[in-house]
Amino acid sequence: MGEAAVAGVSKGADKLESYFKKCFERRDLVADNKTMLRDLLHEYENTLKDINEAENSRLHDIDSVDNTIHRRLGEFKERLEARLEDLRSRTEQVEEANWMSRVKRMRRVMEECQALVTEAREYYETSVRPALERTEDVDSGRDRYIVGSNVPPNPPRLTLDYSSTVTCEGSLKAEILSCVQSSSRIVGVMASGLGGVGKTCALRGLADEKGIQDVFPDGILFIQLGNDSVLPDIIKGIAECVKQTGGRRLCRTIQGAKTVEEACDEARQWFEGRKCLFLVDDIWEVNGITPYELRKLGRMLNKKSLLVFTSRSKGFMEGVDKNVLFKEREDEELAQRMLMNHASIGNYTDLNSSNREAVKGILEICQGLPLALGIAGATVRSYCGSDMNDQDAWSNYYHDLKSKAKSIASGSTKLYGPLRRIVDRSLEVLDLESRFEKTFEDMFQGFCVLQRQQSVRGSMLQKLWNVDDLGGAVEIAELFESVSLIRMMRKKENEFSIQVHDLVLEIANEMASGSRKTEWLKTLLKNYIPKERTASTETEIEATSEGRGMFTPWWEVEDDGFIHDNVCRVLHAAGETKEVVWLLERAQWMVMRLQKSGISGVEQDLAIGIQVAKGSGDEEAELVRYLRLIGSAARMSFIHVVENAYEAWFQMYGRVIWHARQCERTRRFACEVEECAPRPWVKPSVGVLNEAGGPMTESFRTDDFSSILDLCHCGDVIRVLWVPLYRSLFVTEYNRIHGNRKTYELGSAVTESKLYGGRGSSGRNNVLPWSRGCRCGAFSGNLKNLVSGHDDGRVVVWDIDSGYKVDHSVECPASILRRIFQWVCVILGGYGANYATCAAISGDGRTVVFGSKHGRVYIWDIHNHEAAGHPFEIMTVYKQVRGFDVSFDGKRILCRINSSTTPIYAWDRDIGGEIAVPAEMQKDDVTCVAISRDGGRVVSGSEDGTIRMWNMNSTGGSVQTMRGHTRILKYVAFSANGRRFISAATDKTVCVWDAEKCVMITQPLELEGGGRAAVSADGNEVVTSRYNTIRVFKMQNADTADGPGRYTGRVNCVAYCGRGSKVVSGCTDGCVRLWDAESGDRIGQPLAAHTDAVECVAVSADANRIVSASRDGTVRVWDANSGEAVAEHLAGVGCFGYEAVNDDGTRVVFSFEKRVDVWDVDSGRVTTVTRDAQIFTCVAMSSDGARIAFCPSYHSVVVWDVRARQRVRSPLDGHTDKVRLAFSGDGTRLVSGSDDRTVRVWDVASGEAIGHPFVHDCRVVHVQSDVGGATVASYDIRGHGRLWDVKLGKCVMTSSDPKWTSTLHRLGVARLQWLFWEDAVTENVASTSAEQQQVLESIYGEDRAVVPVGDVYFSRKHGSSFWPFCKLVK
């Protein structure tokens, strides 16, 4: 064999060996593929399961999984599901494969799948699992900061170049990074010309930039606004930023904030010390959003954070630290790259000449707009997949686009015309292979129902496009997204939402103008209406009007996040004005909106209603009045509803019920509340709550035991400076727009500061343990500062804008020995020897004045005297300083001291000395002083109610005297414009005066009690305080507002008359009043003869006589029918306890101090039974007046025979605490109820107890028996009643039973005598189910606590000329 042959054989052997080796490798690969496929399927399923669980948790309970993680999970899920389906389809192929199959290709596929699932698993373990574990903190009720981002993703295939400062986005990034190294904190992005220049995408893309992420590691947070945005949208965006960083509970608090300032203050503490980038997109100067609101957003920032916003308004650019201009893409290469990326069909260099020309033509049409480039590129991509060459798609698209130039009407601007052509061509492309009945152009026009920047769910689009199922809506939305006409956010299967760019939405509105838009609106409304509606919820108003047959009860329609917030707007736009009015007249709708959307939702709907009303002709005034009344009721109710949604029915009804007698619309509203309120509910009568539409517009409370130091009317915000019992310092801010309040604690933490007014540290407060409380305080006139004087001798100035951080602080001057003594006293728990007794601050916040108990006045110029180290001008007045007021510029100072001869001192700092005060101003024990803003006028109030005004600038110093109060003046204050001033006195009135004419402007506003007061800048509104309740009044309504007449005295006692159809009340004004128990109307005039408070009332069984006992030491008997006195009153009686009367009212028994007396009314004879009874013992009298019962001690009861003047038997013993008594109708049995929680029935003849005691859960305060003593009714201290069957020895009914009242009347045990000595309640709690206790009503802030008696709740205040009470409706 030759060498050539050997070489050939050897070569063939090598090839054969290689062949067999490959066969064996392929055989092994077949086996490996089978194993790998099974492992992959298992790993895919487990990973998807974990992702699904994370998604579910995120949507329900886990707030710490931010939107970035959520978006990434969605992307992984979509890709994993697609690959999993592919793997499953290849299972049979892999299992049946042999070494001759294409196993390598299969292996490559599975390796790609392996890489994907590995990446997904790695992301889950590093980003998702830790977030899930951290939610344990949230579940336990704690908020914990979590790094996160809520920046929405940019559309796919978007080209952004942040590496070069030539591009707009690159310039933006460079400016942001430069701000980090400087003190700049706000960067503005200005859009040149119109929209679509890519500023939004550039903002979103920052979240994916590594350099930006490194600089802001604690979160990149996004707030989306737009041309239709309102202030609540900014607040919502702030809340979402907090929520995305783990602040679940704080998010709910911020959502309740009703000003941007308030929301930012809440968020500032949360982001304190965090390095965050806040992105605010597309802010417009509309709907109350101003550059000032933008500056408020800067309150969230610290030295490490940055705010970037985009806008088309130049007004927002004023005052920003950096400004970046965005405009159309002038860089043709970058625009070309962006277009090609959106098309995803090759590179520009690969195109032939004709297609390159087509690309250039398309770029010319798009004019550099990123929005147009995105839509055009995406549409070109849809040309592919047909028989044409992919490259030829450019030429074909360009040809089609040019052909549209003459067939499409140009848009509203030269720029939008080409964009309209691009959109129109995209819609035609979608229609080419559409399977839907409607064309895509038609469905695109449906977007006209949306507002700018509005995100809507797929369920809404299903109704809008009228498709059979949600899957159809998904398919349509995906096709719109495929050509970049919408942005689609997917959540899980068939759950998605979309958003339409403003410019695209504008084109949709242009295409659907006129009647076509109305058709879309009506179609949408029609598809929301339930297919079948029952009549079970029909109310009186719906049954008696055109409503039920014509209109839809929208409160019954399930909300999808769109319909409830937009139905009034959509109805109005569709021309359905009658249905708008009908809907706003429905109590069910207004209550539902108040509960779910808050006052902002109610006011949004009412604003639309007022627009409708203004075109309603003759009904305009009446309808506007009704809508404003409902708005007022909602605003007054919201502060209660936000804490307890259940009582919205109680609140709204109580605010409008009086007006129901004057307005038919309001009457129908009240009737609907009565019919539709969930059971149980509390139905209030007139006067329980303050009525809507009156002078009072809002009320709220501070701490239960607090002292108000100062009030400040700041327009939309009311600030209250107050000190609780433990003497820390607090400020409560109440937002008047939406009824939200927030409280800051100041006094327990004082920031680091220099002794003589150095600016405090900007960091967290450092607690100084010796700063133990506050003596005095006041707000500045510029609303930026407040001053407080503390027990440790420090005077502190707080900066309001910074969230009440210390701005300056100083220590009251004292000698070294006195200062040592002061510190020793404070450390030992006492007070220092020298502290500020009162303080004031000038309107400009530069001058602080405070006085000490040693008679010195210190004037502290915060800014001018800091460097010199001599902070004070000191003046001596030799008496304790009681009050100050300072002109706005701090040049003139007014001081009130504890002196009867010269109570007023005045200084002018310009002349450097005291100003002589006219002697007439020093008269009659001055109690309060005030100085006008310009320092020109001084007003004072005196003990006799006299007001005096002195013009300091006039020659001769003339003094004007005014009279309008009858008792001690407590407070006077000027309005900011100096034209008006207010006065408040202990005669329970507040007056507003014209400062120039010295005359009263309105009738005095009658209030409950007296306290601090403040006036608005224009003098039209007054804020008052009494104890811990703050009220806001609109003085112009004091003369014109319709409302019930007021009596503000306290109710001390009530008694039922006859069978419970009437009620008698005894009041602190000395009057006895008779009321209809059902309607609440007063019967006749008040019975007025007592000169002091009525302490006890009783009514005879025949309801003809009323007995009243007063603190003036008299007992009177009245004819209940005529209101005349029956006999000469009984005088000389001491402090009353109880009284009782026989059936015909001829004999009365009463207790006072330790005495028990019996009065024979007809003869006038008084018999003293005992002088040694239990103090203020309860008494009872039999129906014939022959026997009485009283308690000689806590644990025993004595029955006394009046005629025989002796005890019937030995004392009845058994109780261990205070006892209440009642005879049976026939006098044979006596019922006793005690504080020991038991009720006992006694046989009067034998003195034996009948059966075992009946047991309550708490103290028994009233008992009543039927005629024979077989049935007993009793009430405990909570007002819960029980009906006992004496023979059976058990409770047969409770007051929670709907038949309670009727049963009492039937059995004759409804007669009731109730003394309001016990504390009343401000809440009523009842069971709505076997498991749930629900607060049904609360009336705090109304100063009208109630006393529950069974299913009736009596008010301790007469809120009106009608008897105020509540009924529990079951």
Protein architecture, described:
WD repeats lie at residues 778-808, 919-954, 962-994, 1044-1085, 1087-1128, 1221-1252. This protein has 1370 residues and is of the alpha+beta class. Helix 2 packs antiparallel against helix 4 (103-139), helix 12 (332-343) runs parallel beside helix 14 and helix 25 crosses helix 26 (587-613). The longest helix has 58 residues, at 3-60. It is globular, with a radius of gyration of 40 Å. 48% of the residues are buried. About 7% of the residues have low confidence.
Quote the distance from N terminus to C terminus.
117 Å
Largest sheet: 6 strands, parallel
The shape is: globular
Please give the order of strands in the largest beta sheet: 1-3-4-5-2-6
Helix content: 25-40%
The gyration radius over C-alpha positions equals: 40 Å
Question: Count the strands?
Answer: 69
Low-pLDDT sequence parts = 58-65, 136-140, 406-415, 533-549, 748-771, 826-833, 866-870, 1327-1333, 1356-1363
The total count of helices amounts to 32
Structural class: alpha+beta
Mean of the pLDDT scores? 77
Estimated share of beta-strand residues: 25-35%
Which features would summarize this protein structure in a list?
1370 residues, alpha+beta, 5-stranded antiparallel sheet, 31% helix
